[in-house]
Amino acid sequence: MRHLGDVIPLPVSVRPDPAADFPLPADVSVSAAPAATAIAGELAELLRQATGFPVPIVAGLGTVRLLLDDDEAKSPESYRLDIAADGVTLRAPTDQGLFAGLQTIRQLLPGAGAVVLPGGRVEDEPRFPYRGTMLDLARHFYQPADIRSFIDTIAQFKINHLHLHLTDDQGWRLEIEGWPRLTEVSGGEGTGIDGAGPGFLTAQQYAELVAYAATRFVTIVPEIDLPGHVNAAQVAYPELTCDGEPVQPRTDPEVGYSSLCAGKDETYAFVEDVIRVVAALTPGPYLHIGGDEALSTTAEDYRAFMTRVLPLPGKYGKRAIGWHEMAAVDLPATAIPQYWRIEPVDDGVARAAAAGHQVIMSPADRSYLDMKYDESTPLGLDWAGLVGVERSYDWDPADRLPGVGEESLLGVEAPLWSETLRSLADVEFMVFPRLLAIAEIGWTPQAARDWTSFRDRLAAFGPRLEAQGVNFHRSTEIDWTAG
Ligand code: TNX
Question: How would you classify the pairing of strands 116-117 and 13-16?
């Protein structure tokens, strides 16, 4: 049997009651408020798999009950789980909270043997509303089925945002109505790093992916990287360069050489069109406009460009997110800088925070999932250092940058860049288990977190990830035999 606190991310409050340990009976059933039928169906299926019992969904009071209490002024993701001798009750203010609680129940089910749930009460809510990861589809494209599988895995750890880096120098991965050459030319064969990552999402596939993610309570955050990282766009449409001359496709990992032309009207016609189309395809509240490493854009052009472009997500109903370089300009009130630096260098982020902006923390030396774990890691980069599991766990996003404390943070994100990655197996190897560390940072109160506790809880997830076919890294920092 699992212990009530054997959960990642660690819940806010865990009160075990061993007298109330609950063996699931052969006639175990599920009941739910009408608004929660989808989650009830999922829970029943989970219990069927664990027990082999039929687990019907019943109209009256089931053995396991899902209740919606919308009267409380709590986080929509909060939940309370009671496991008692006469059954299990999960209550939350929203179906999002029920889904979070469902992930806790999933983790409390044993991997094998008699199905007994540990008695007691769990009360839980997230530290931050934004807990994310990122896939770089531009350097290497991953098929929708792989992205869906990835979403299934991350959602189990209460990761609720998936940022898709859709465009870069080496490829353009989202079909844009009115600009067909973006994907015809820059999404096809020969694109990506070493020409080995071809493919793109049609508008329809993107919409389906967004809808699928929503069933896992994961919000897709699309990124169109501007004004740098645009070689693929310029290959497709040479009028997007300053001199209008064609440029060559690039499949090397260099950054900082391409830029949209801040002084040309064509630039803004293109950018506004793309933002309008992406916003229309995206139900979530955010649209990421990049803004990083625009090393071949002059500071003056960067300001001029960003000042014109930053209001556009708002015009189409979205909040702009951008890499923190964009904080060099005065931001629209709802814009969110995403901080990625190693050193606490202030590029205007603290000023933005003081003006009331929310910030997403993604420091490269802690949260970049494309950094090698250690010298022997066959994949990944090391420009931000080696990032073992403890290093990815043992930091606090609220003390990274002076002036950007707890109350300024929307949350944390762990980006995965794809220069060295070729497959879902490669992605999983770099992401797991480190994303579980980031998930706990984003969910569990800082004062309740502890590396030793995390390390010991993580060991038990080895067999679970293995059973799910997830290609996680068997880091020697963890004693996997303890699981
Ligand atoms: C930096 S940090 C980048 C990406 C690279 C990554 C590789 C940032 C916003 N941009 O262009 O893929 O390093 O780790």
Answer: unpaired
pLDDT, tens digit, for every residue of 207-222? 999 999 999 999 999 9
Q: CA nearest 125: which of 188, 168, 80, 64? A: 80
Domains of the chain: 13-124 (3.30.379.10), 130-452+460-482 (3.20.20.80)
Q: How far is the CA of 389 from the centre of ligand 1 (A)?
A: 20
In the reported structure, the alpha carbon of residue 122 is separated from the centroid of ligand 1 by a whole-number distance in angstroms of: 39
Tell me how far the alpha carbon of residue 416 lies from the centroid of ligand 1, in angstroms.
9
Render the burial of 354-368: b for 16+ CB within 10 Å, e for the rest. Answer: eeebbbbbbbbbbbb
Pocket test for ligand 1, best of 361, 379, 386, 417 (most atoms within 8 A of CB): 417
Measured CA to CA, the distance from residue 303 to residue 329 in angstroms comes to: 6
Q: Which atom of ligand 1 is nearest the CA belonging to 290?
A: 9
pLDDT tens-digit map of 256-288: 999 999 999 999 999 999 999 999 999 999 999
